Predict the 3D structure of the following.
Amino acid sequence: MTPALSVRGLSKSFDALKVSDAITFDLAEGEIHAIIGPNGAGKTTLIHQLSGSLAPDAGRILLGGEDITRLSMAARARRGLARSFQITSILPGFTALENVALAVQARSGSSFRFLRPAASERALNEAAAAALAAAGLCGTEGRIAGTLSHGEKRQLEIAIALAMQPKVLLLDEPLAGTGHRESAALLQLIAGLKGRLSIVLIEHDMEAVFALADRISVLVYGRVIATGRPEAIRADAEVRAAYLGDEEES
Ligand SMILES: Nc1ncnc2c1ncn2[C@@H]1O[C@H](COP(=O)(O)OP(=O)(O)OP(=O)(O)O)[C@@H](O)[C@H]1O
């Protein structure tokens, strides 16, 4: 079966610093593939290259078998690649529903254009409400986004990404800055997405990573030193020496 996303020999340097060093991995259909590694290993730079905000120096990115390496962010999004941005992409003065509706409109502008304005607005709001519900945010439709809790904003970010009906979702530290209860809600939300779409997950919370991931790739100094199922990664001597051993002791 063609992987949802294939990364082949992706390389990127900032001057003399090699931040992505021939990165190769596959994201299988329906799986959560976590990328872990120490600070500065190059995880965020990898996500930037996958989403299209940063051009690699070499290598290829295939979405469902199609080479998207040279495509813009918008063109990748239209093909079903969504990124859950950090909180900055939320419009704080708009309601939760409006935030998602804008994303739905961006994705499906042409299909809504054939409806009359009132029907079009209803369809748009229904689609946005469905995405909010899928992200566990029922009842927040009319709330001003800026007044949502930190955890709810993270959920809204995911709702906006889900509104694009992506095949592949890039999640960059979805639990960052959340408290215990908030992170439990987000964990449940991400676990509920498993199998419905394919997810590349970057997350520092190792408990969450090992609970969610079907497979894990370990990035150290821009290089994938191991890829495998969570239990194999946990037992891998090189991974423990380079990263996990230290994490679990701290
Ligand atoms: N635009 C840039 N110009 C120069 N160096 C950069 C740039 N972006 C990132 N770097 C460097 O590349 C390396 C990898 O950074 P990156 O943010 O991708 O790591 P990371 O694994 O996401 O780290 P963290 O876990 O701390 O978020 C770091 O040494 C960083 O300082």
